[in-house]
Design brief:
By secondary structure, the protein is of the alpha+beta class. The protein has a domain of 91 residues: Gamma-B Crystallin, domain 1 (Sandwich). It has 1 helix and 7 strands. This is Peptidase inhibitor family I36.
Length: 131
Amino acid sequence: MRGLLVPVVAAAAVVLPVSTTHAAGGYDRCPDGYYCMFSGLDGTGDMIRLRASAPDLAALGMNDRGKSDWNRTASTVYLWSDKNYSGCTAGTSTGPTGKGNFFPTYRDFFSSVRIGGPGGPSCGTPPGEGR
């Protein structure tokens, strides 16, 4: 009887499906048509995804926490230093150039996001820093 049990177990092991898919990570978590902000560099950490403007990122748990982003919308996105679209702004273009890490000076800095215009006074480009 023992000899019959072994082939059945071996056959069952062969039939089990193996999944080769994996969850998206980093920037790839951002769906097409959304603006995404990440709490970590290079699209890591917590993520928010927006299809509409957000006057107060505190309500989404991302106030002064963003370190990188990806704009997958059809519009320029304006990041505001203060809530309710006040303070200074930095723009994030659409498309492949709209993805990257924030200047070190502007990490953990933004408090609201406006998709489309208008922007406000520029926060400027810190000397010697590139995006």
